[in-house]
Amino acid sequence: MPQTDPTTPPAGRVTDSALDPSVAARLRRDDTGLVAAIVQQHDTRDVLMLGWMDDEALHRTLTSGRVTFWSRSRQEYWRKGDTSGHVQHVRSVALDCDGDALLVTVEQVGAACHTGTRTCFEAGGPLPVSTSGTVDPSVGAVAPATPGAQP
């Protein structure tokens, strides 16, 4: 696969976005010009999915009332729900303190995940978490904590 210059946006990406310059100045983009966008159901606060936005996708999200992402795999903009009918109506958008992540609260219509589940985190499932800080590598499970033991 040929190497691409990370400073050159892929074909199809808008380079002269109409995003408010004061908003654009606050974004800390990755090497490909993208910012993570966490999507959350506005009323239940369920985390639905993670997508990626460049300036143009954020501009479209802020001005259209529908969530738009940049698809890293398809190398194109996609407005959530245009093909599936599983629309995300924007309720609010917030930028985190570092400027490198967005929180988009939405009214989700139908499934958020392309697998058909309500959230993209259902299919992957929970991972083992240890409160004692030890994991049994032979089974990949958390070893039970010993009462009174020091971590």
Automatic annotation (TrEMBL):
Compartment list: Cytoplasm
Domain (Phosphoribosyl-AMP cyclohydrolase) ranges: 49-122
Magnesium is among the record's keywords: yes
Binding annotation for Zn(2+): 97, 113, 120
Main EC class the enzyme belongs to: hydrolase
EC number: 3.5.4.19
Pathway: Amino-acid biosynthesis; L-histidine biosynthesis; L-histidine from 5-phospho-alpha-D-ribose 1-diphosphate: step 3/9
SUPFAM superfamilies in alphabetical order: HisI-like (SSF141734)
Note accompanying the cofactor annotation: Binds 1 zinc ion per subunit.
Cofactor: Zn(2+); Mg(2+)
Function: Catalyzes the hydrolysis of the adenine ring of phosphoribosyl-AMP.
Assembly mode: Homodimer.
Protein name as annotated: Phosphoribosyl-AMP cyclohydrolase
Source organism of the structure: Cellulomonas phragmiteti
Gene name of this polypeptide: hisI
